[in-house]
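Posted in: Structural Biology > Protein-Ligand Complexes

Title: Requesting predicted complex, acetyl coenzyme *A in pocket

I'd be grateful if someone could produce the 3D structure tokens for the following input. Sequence and ligand are given below.
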Amino acid sequence: GIDLGKLLATTGYTTLDPGFVNTASTKSAITYIDGEAGILRYRGYPIEQLAEHSTFIEVSYLLIYGELPTAEQLEAFTDKIRRHTLLHEDLKRFFDGFPRNAHPMPVLSSAINALSAYYQDSLNPDDPEQVELSTIRLLAKLPTIAAYAYKKSVGQPFLYPDNSLNLVENFLRMTFGFPAEPYEVDPEISKALDMLLILHADHEQNCSTSTVRLVGSSDANLFTSISGGINALWGPLHGGANQAVLEMLEGIRERGDTVEDFVKKVKNKEDGVKLMGFGHRVYRNYDPRAAIVKKAADTILAKLGGDDELLEIAKALEEAALTDEYFIARKLYPNVDFYTGLIYRAMGFPTRMFTVLFAMGRLPGWIAHWREMHNDAALKIGRPRQIYTGYTERDYKELTTR
Ligand code: ACO
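-- Reply #1 --
Done. Output follows.
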């Protein structure tokens, strides 16, 4: 296509596009979305096939290196990650400084940023070996950090990683296990969580990925760029939606609202109430990830014994919204996180950990985008323009005359 930005820059014109609704910031070969048709593909592979047949570690490899790994490549990749799951002992103490009631998202983003201080031999964005090392360190250590953030919040002792387990099993053990006590990983939970991580692994230029790219465009290191992405993800309009959905469902139950009353409140925009977990900038038909999660929710909750009452409220809300003119006219459908919270809760995660799980899933996508950007010879620092609307010019007034 035409590089409109370049063309306009030479003419002195600036385009104004709040929220980048229609402005591409980059070319990319990682993830394809057709929002009208409800299609999502990683490196060309349909999300439905990956969710059914692949694993999170394999999908991470696919996103980062562009191809599905051979058996040998997968083993080498898995082995490298396994050898980097431990945290520096000093970094472990970092967690002690946070208040116990801290939300785990700022704990996670701070600890990820702190990796820049503890692992200074893998900071150079222009050295492919260092980028590779920081990639492996992030994939290996983020689940350990996430589990520690959880342990801190419940006041329980940390567990060292057990490297006989795979990435997801290890995370579950470090989260729910106790030192010196055997912990049996439930294969149903581990498989379901792995699948949910696959669904979250990339989503092209979303808010957090664009943040990772923007931070990284200044040649900032990979750790610190990912930390920026985690902060962007925390907002309830983005990754924080999974926590917000569950709080919304619980609120409806506690207040005893009928589904009709709640939908009316949303439509009247009372107190800015939104139907959390509904709507998406790109999907105007349906979110293919939501279809997979909804199907999984039924089977997983039946096995794990979830909160049926909240599931019923969620289903009734979806049904009411999908037949309501307000939602139809605005093309609002459930997004990936409308049903995930119910599954996370059934697995035993507290609501505040939901967005941390999203971050765990999105990590390989963030890394893939940061690397794609750095491998692009046309890399330019991200620097949007503005339309200035302030005073043109005025004279300074001494304090006594104001
Ligand atoms: N509930 C009620 N109304 C909504 C919702 C919603 N969830 N989402 C959008 N609308 C309405 C808007 O009020 C607006 O109505 P109007 O034209 O009368 O003013 C119209 O639909 C268009 O919405 P926008 O906000 O312009 O759409 P945008 O693309 O900017 O926002 C977003 C997308 C942020 C996802 C929005 O739909 C939303 O806030 N949803 C709830 C939060 C959520 O679930 N976020 C997760 C997104 S997916 C993810 O990150 C994993």
